[in-house]
Specification:
Strand order of the largest sheet: 4-3-2-5-6-7
Strand content: 5-15%
Order of helices and strands: EEHHHHHHEHEHEHEEE
Shape: globular
Largest sheet: 6 strands, parallel
Number of domains: 2
CATH architecture of the largest domain: 3-Layer(aba) Sandwich
Oligomer: single chain
Helix content: 40-55%
Length: 243
């Protein structure tokens, strides 16, 4: 089934990553263990770095343990990974480690087969700008798009948003914050995600929405409620003319 948008009706497309552009399994099976194995060394050797220190302070605050030492912080991070908690300091520390792993060539990001070609076509369309909004940190998002299987895709993306610079993904105010930041009217912005709660929040903020349901993804069975639905990006037509 193809979802079509009238020519000239959209100025921005905002992309979720996990479960939408890319497989959740890659994140869970590759990226989570990669970071988890390195949390201890990061906290022990680089705890004085401002970004690390700030994240550690946030972990202590969220855990209600202001005196937690590095070992306890590492255990809390592991518990949050097991619970798939979208905690900002966890995502910050994961993002630091993932970005470095990508840069060293130890990691290469994953995209579903059709996604990169479709994103290139959308980015080449008159007036359409692409953005990313993910629970993963901006640092992790940038690394993801820099170290893709087809090389850097950074030129396709006009901006990156996470739970720190925009807010929680299931709250409408986060989407309103992104609208203000990118200067695009809500009703001219399209959001793509696999999670119903995120789609509902975006719609509540006035955005247009399409749910991406890919077989095998964790939220496939939950469906996308009353949102338009596709199983792949090439089922979405923006009806734009190429430059």
């Amino acid at each position: 089934m193809t979802v079509r948008f009238d020519e000239g009706s959209l100025d921005a497309v905002v992309l979720d990553i996990e479960g939408t552009t890319s497989a959740t399994g890659f994140v869970v099976d590759v990226l989570y263990p990669y970071a988890r194995e390195r949390f201890g060394a990061l906290l022990a050797s680089r705890g004085d770095e401002p970004e690390v220190a700030r994240a550690v302070a946030q972990v202590r605050e969220l855990a209600g343990e202001p005196d937690a030492d590095a070992g306890r912080v590492e255990r809390v991070l592991g518990e949050w990974v097991d619970a798939d908690r979208k905690a900002t300091p966890l995502k910050t520390l994961q993002g630091i480690l993932w970005a470095e792993g990508f840069a060293r060539g130890e990691l290469v990001s994953h995209f579903y087969p059709e996604v990169i070609d479709v994103l290139r076509a959308w980015a080449a369309a008159d007036g359409v700008r692409l953005y990313v909004y993910s629970s993963g940190s901006v640092a992790a998002q940038r690394a993801w798009f820099t170290y893709s299987p087809e090389g850097s895709l950074m030129e396709l993306v006009s901006g990156f948003y996470d739970t720190e610079n925009a807010g929680p993904k299931q709250e409408a105010d986060s989407y309103r914050a992104i609208s203000a930041a990118i200067g695009v009217a809500a009703d001219r912005t399209l959001f793509l995600s696999d999670r119903l709660g995120e789609l509902d929040a975006a719609r509540d903020a006035g955005w247009r929405t399409v749910g991406v349901r890919r077989a095998g993804e964790p939220y496939f069975a939950a469906g996308v409620g009353g949102h338009a639905e596709v199983s792949a990006f090439d089922e979405i037509s923006l009806a734009r003319s190429a430059r």
